[in-house]
Amino acid sequence: MRAAAILLVHLLCVRKVSFLRGRGEPAESLRRWLFEFVRIAERIVHVTNIYVGNLAYRATEDDVRRAFEAYGQVDSVNIIVDRETGRSRGFAFVEMPDSTQAQTAIEQVNQTEIAGRRVTVNEARPRRSRPSRSRQW
Fold first, then answer.
1. What residue ranges in 2-87 does DSSP mark as E strands?
2. 48-123: CATH number
3. Quick one: pLDDT at residue 19?
4. DSSP assignment string, 82-136
């Protein structure tokens, strides 16, 4: 979805620049449009991934979403579950498209209760690559 949005913005920008160039617009006008494209593309691409720790096992995605939606748009909520038992592992990740809203949400939701348990919230660190584990039967 994001790739399609970026492509659409790019195509619109290229068409606008071609139009302006055909009208003999000065280079400064073209430069402004390119900077505008970059600004829009960055907003589309950059999603802040937020870590929510110490989450109650009974907390639902809706519980977590409600806590964060008070501070802005939430793209997704992913409660991590154990593969074997299907039970929550006690943490989740929330994606918010606006970095300013995400930072506000991190500050405001950190150390508050979600589903009866005080959570720890901070910006998620990028996942480190791990060597693949081979299965031996």
1. 48-53, 76-81
2. 3.30.70.330
3. 64
4. -TTT--EEEEEEEEES-HHHHHHHHHHHTT-EETTEE-EEEEPPPPPP-PPPPP-
